Amino acid sequence: MAVCGGAVMVAVLMTVCPAWASESGGHALNWTDFMLRFLNFAIMLAILVKLLKKPIANFFKSRTENIEKLLEELEAKKRAAEAKAAEYKSRLDRLDQETGQIVDEYVQEGEREKQKIVDAAAKQAEYIKQQARFAIQQEMKAARESLQEEIAELSVAAAENLLKKNIRPADQQRLVEEFTIKAVEAK
């Protein structure tokens, strides 16, 4: 590679030689001096290549290894990040499911509470109806008793009036004696 570079340099210098010759008053290039300088440059280049080839190769090799190691680490970190992202996504999916379940449970609990309230209201309404029926029955019973008492009083009054009009003193004496006998026997 160094030889190719040197050959290219010689070719370039030879093409520019006529321009140099015209610049320096028509003198041609001193080929001996040029060849010595070129040989000196080539030897210097060969020494530098010989001395620096191994350190430069080691530098580039270690740099390549470091870059490969860094790429592997970055790839591992990328895989870890993708795994974390997948884990977080699955957690979010589970949380969405759990949230849905919790909402469903609260809706069901609300329905149960609603049913309890409706049942309690129905029981309360039935109790109120029973109390109203009982109160109506009691009032009807009291009204019947009151009506029976009034009928009895009116019947007694009517019977008294009838007896007063139709009873004679002899009938009255006989009734008093019968009542007295029954009262004595009852004792």
Task: Describe what this molecule looks like in 3D.
This protein is mainly alpha-helical and 187 residues long. It has a domain at 48-135. The chain has 3 helices and no strands. The longest helix has 136 residues, at 31-166. The radius of gyration is 67 Å and the shape is rod-shaped. The N and C termini lie far apart (159 Å). The mean pLDDT is 85.
How do the strands and helices of this protein lay out in sequence?
Elements: H1 2-23, H2 31-166, H3 169-186
Which descriptors would you attach to this protein?
0% strand, 3 helices, rod-shaped, 94% helix, 187 residues, mainly alpha
How many distinct helices?
3
Described by strand count, sense and barrel closure, the largest sheet is: none
Query: How does the helix and strand content classify structurally?
Result: mainly alpha
Which overall shape is indicated by the principal axes computed on the Cα atoms?
rod-shaped
> Mean pLDDT, rounded to whole units?
85
Q: How many β-strand stretches?
A: 0
Low-confidence stretches: none
- What series of H and E elements makes up the topology? HHH
Give the amount of beta strand, in percent: under 5%
Quick gist of this model?
The chain is mainly α and 187 residues long. The protein is built from 3 helices and no strands. It has a domain at 48-135.
